[in-house]
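So, read this over?
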Amino acid sequence: MLMHTHEARLDALRKELAKRGLNGFVIPISDEHMSEYVGEYAQRLAWLTGFGGSAGSAAVLAGEFSGKGAAMFTDGRYTVQVRDQVSGELYDYEDVPATSPAKWLAANAPQGAKIGYDAWLHGIDWAEDAEALFAKRGITLVPVDSNPIDTVWQDRPAPSAALAVPHDDKFAGRSSADKRAEIADWLKREGYDATVITALDSVAWLLNMRGADVANTPVALSYVVAHADGTAELFIAPEKVSPELSQHLGNAVKVRDRADFLPTLGSLSGKTVAVDPKHAVAGIFYALQAGGAKLVRDADPAVLPKAIKTPAEQQGHRDAQARDGAAVTRFLRWLSVEAPKGELDELGAAAKLREFRGQSAALRDTSFDTISAAAGHAALPHYKVDEDSNITIPPSSIFLCDSGGQYDDGTTDITRTVWVGPGQPSAEMIDRNTRVLKGHIELALAVFPDGTSGGALDALARMHLWAGGVDYGHGTGHGVGSYLSVHEGPQRISKPGGAFPGTETPLREGMILSNEPGYYKAGEYGIRIENLILTVAADIAQSEGQYLGFETLTFVPLDRRLVDKTMLTPREIAWWNDYHAQVRAILAPQLDGDDLAWLEAECAPL
């Protein structure tokens, strides 16, 4: 019998844990590749609790316990959402990083308890830290043979059976053979025999392969073992491999059944094998150790070269952005007409934007679920509209739309904040938006020595907000892939020492990031201005050393009704006018009629 309530599902999980002699269990949002976005088959936390965010976890106690015996763990991005979606009668709400599932279990589980976890969903660092913490309390961390949620989730979807397909070298700018040779050179320099590539976007990049197994991210469920001789083994379900892919991979890549992956790890006895603890689950480490491999923890060698875009990828991004910019501009013109009528809702706006993007035959998918946020919802940086949360966009209010597209030649990510008439925005709204704009411009125009980290640049985007006594709680910029993940490491622009990795990574020529400062007034409105930027060499006369700067890639008009020109310096006004002249030059040839007339008006000098 199917269980239709989260209470029944929680009860079924507790009974299953009791059968296995476990006193508790930890449920993350994760898959066997530690992906940011996971397939439906891996949405265990959502099935159990109802939580629909992209980052969070739960801990559940079974048997005798005090209180609710279960807790949800989310960071500040999901404080409101988790309370809307997860029953407070079943779960305590816990804030990360103030606490964690391991800390909560150490404090609430009885002495001598056995806490289960799925070693194929957690990283090795998490497992070792939890094990050490539990040992102080006489608690044992137990890797389960099979996930107990899968036992009680009777209608669990199967993993995607979509075909994996070649990604043309003309888009990648490098062949897979060239990339594998680079990895092989690294292995030989370090004295390693092989490395296990587990991150789905790293596998896709290394083999110039794409898939459709995860919503919004064109990857295929697979692993690679790359060897020092330049060969590689791809572990993937056989039904996903087409003749075209086999031909594309060539003889140097041996295609093997995904079911062979675990036995292969166990057969590497005596081999020195590098594995990245940030991207590989604990189960991989345990399998290699059990098989007698000499295990070395080292960074995924695909991550940095993947982040440094080839000239072909850079041009592909420009082409994709131009195409995407025209679609977003058509949407904004349409929105300016329809939203003031008071009949358009958030879901309708998101659907219309998808329709405009879909007019291009090059569109493959959206790059994430569109954040279509009206009024107070715009104050939630990671708001996700659904049938339950959907509201009508109120006239005389701010509307924020954060969206992106996946194209063969690039991945886009853009946020525009607009005023929905009639009337005028408040003085506070204009002040806050102008401060966000000033920070955006400051970062766009930044020039800095080669080797500077993203963390060192973050304050540029915040300085004008700080001067007004306000700030925002998310990072300023994340890396972006090339027809891959919209959130790509290792680079990041964020406050140093924050919760997100990558702030200390030096920025390199060819890296693409977002530039997205914001401001959020809880329950009222939110503002974010986001363009993508390419790290380029800066042309400075008589510079002492190499300097870098940014090339803006995203071209869509900004809402002039939310700008106080008197707050802008001549340098900032020049940036605004130059930017909008480029917007007009790039987009005008793609538009006509009312869309072109609207563009011309929006791109007039400030």
The longest strand covers residues 397-403.
